[in-house]
Amino acid sequence: MIRDHFRVLVVDLNTGRGSVALVDGRDSVAGGSGLAAHLFMKYGKPDRPWNDPEQPLIFAIGPLTGYFPLMSKTVCAFKSPYHDQYAESHGGGRSALSLRFADLDALVITGRATRPSCISVGSRHLEVKEVHYLWGKDLYTTGKMLRSMFKGAGHRSILRIGPAGENGSAFACINVDSYRHFGRLGGGTVMGSKNLKGIVINGDGSFPLNGSKEYPKLFQDVYTKLTDTDMMSKYHDIGTPINMAVLNEVKMLPIRNLQRTTDPGISEITGEKFAELALLRNAACAGCPVGCIHIGFVREKFHSDYQYLYRQVSYDHEPIFAVGSMLSVENCFAVLSIIDVAEKVGLDIMSAGVALAWATEATEKGLISEKETIISLSFGDSEAYKQALQHLGQATNEFYRLLGQGTLKAAERYGGKDYACVLGQEMAGYATGEVYFASQALGLRHSHLDSGGYSYDQKETGKDPAKAVDFLVKDEQGRVLLTSMVACLFARGVYTDALLADCLRSVGYGTLADSLGTVSKNIQQLRWKARLATGYRPEDVTIPKRFLEITTGKGTMDAAYLVGLKDHYAKAIRALGSSET
Ligand code: SF4
């Protein structure tokens, strides 16, 4: 639906009622990331804690969702239990198209339900249903029950949390339609703090396709680029796990709590190995012809007479790095079985894997023992890690409760801060060098996707912090435009600024199309304003010593360069956050 404003459903869980708000700003914040920050500034309480019931949980889509392929993401924004500051997390599945067909640009949830509840929204309905019987249930059971309770198969998207989100873990994710996640920075616990076990978005409406005569041709051109060229084939074929072997080869893969950056044992958990042995099928987010989601299987013997059950588990580079190479688990089925447990309890697998890698090294160094970890942790022991993930998700004791707030918080209590692999949050699966470390540590989402620092490290030979930070800031601006359109970032090579402008124009967003440069700058500044308003101090960010101890294919790390990058980037962030939008 083309409109010059946003149609936002605001649900108040205190009363169980909602209303539709028409919010201005289409031509200045576009949608997605921009809309989420705009709505946080409108509904959020920057100076109150993350779990204040009035804090909003926001889901926003973009102007091209439903009109062009791969405009398939939803941006989720909230005040994070991880750092009590503004946070964004992106997820796909069917969430974006369901919101579009529910005739909503965004969903904002405030308040706290008195009993465990589930929200169901559609183009003409809102229901807040009490679901006390789902509280404590794992993600698989919750999904099964929600699917049977709510109509709309094929049109609906189901967002849900597991026990980790109920137990206050800052690692709790929101699962989307089984195979996608709002993974990072604790969105699951924001839902849990609102007594919200699930959100069902039913895309039960329809709208006329009022595009221009250029629209069908443009759509076909984009579709052809995505499917008939090799621009996206990497994502469909082996998928993101192709990075495992590539990074291992150039000595840039985090291994064994980042004690190494290359290891021959990785050959058993490469993307190629997963494809050969464990791949069942590919899946895709709604509206995506690429299908990068790779689904493998875990098999469990449930009876001595060779009786087995199996479950389908999605995998990507990041989960394989987090519970494979970081934990020295070098068997693809063992990796999948660990991912399976993290899914059940509703943990962000990246954060959880990196936290357990720290716990294992802390055990080796004698800082903690079974008294804290309950089971003995050692690198490569997948069975122990499966139990540890259960404890982490259930917050079984003080150690796991603290670890679930962040590795650095546990390290403050038990020691071992030097080798906590934290860059703003638990690291992503790249050990490319100083620019990447500064970029994840200070970046707004603390994500490897905030900007292309990992590729800058690999391509650039010079060490000029000002030049590198200039790249990070410009690259972030381009990515922010894409995430405001809610384009999947895998399509960033296809959706150039010029193509985005053409797409917008073809469906009727001419004014927005004509000002994308100003709009993307505006959004970039707005997001930083939101983050800084909630207490972020980029100049205080520290990078643990472990990141300087590694050697990559490019050589040893340069401490002075890293300090220069951090200083320049912190100043750039301050400048972005204090400029007029
Ligand atoms: S490329 Fe993958 S993550 Fe991106 S929209 Fe398609 S299926 Fe979803």
Explain what the structure shows.
The protein is α+β, with helices and mostly antiparallel strands and 581 residues long. The protein contains 25 helices and 19 strands. A hairpin with a 2-residue loop joins strand 18 (551-552) and strand 19. The longest helix has 21 residues, at 465-485. Residues 70, 72, 92, 235, 284-285, 288, 290-293, 488, 490 line the site of iron/sulfur cluster.
List the helices and strands and how they pair.
Blueprint: E1 6-12, E2 17-23, H1 26-29, H2 32-43, E3 57-60, E4 74-79, E5 86-91, H3 95-101, E6 106-110, E7 117-121, E8 126-130, H4 139-149, E9 156-160, H5 163-166, E10 174-176, E11 180-182, H6 187-193, E12 196-202, H7 214-228, H8 233-236, H9 242-249, H10 271-277, E13 279-283, E14 293-303, E15 307-315, H11 317-325, H12 332-345, H13 349-364, H14 370-373, H15 382-394, H16 398-403, H17 407-414, E16 422-423, E17 425-426, H18 434-442, H19 453-459, H20 465-485, H21 497-507, H22 510-514, H23 516-533, H24 546-549, E18 551-552, E19 555-556, H25 559-578
Parallel strand pairs: 1-6, 7-12
Antiparallel strand pairs: 1-2, 3-4, 3-6, 4-5, 7-8, 9-10, 9-12, 10-11, 13-14, 14-15, 16-17, 18-19
Helix pairs in contact: 2-20, 2-23, 7-21, 11-12, 11-13, 12-15, 18-19, 18-25, 20-23, 20-25, 23-25
The site of iron/sulfur cluster has 13 residues, from loops.
